[in-house]
Amino acid sequence: MSEQVPPDPSEPNGPQTGTLLKTRTKTAKPAMYKVLILNDDYTPMEFVVHILETFFNKNKQEAIDIMMHVHRRGVGLCGIFTCEVAETKVTQVLEYAKAHDQPLQCIMERE
Fold this sequence. Notes:
alpha+beta
């Protein structure tokens, strides 16, 4: 009877060894959301300008330009943010408008 000898790892046809590589996880960019102000027939233009300056850090001219866009087109872009920031901005604007008895509407939508 013959004895079987295990194959020599240094031989080309022998067992192969390799290095286990770490897999890299790709970090996806977060989804971005547009915060929009909607036009209505009751909210004063000055109040909308104040909202844009206070909650969206717009200067006076930017705020006036956005307010006029809302007035003419029915909707205006206040900014683009991550989901959590957009939700916070919308909530702040709606609560502030409600506290000041204004029907101003602010929404967010995925970009």
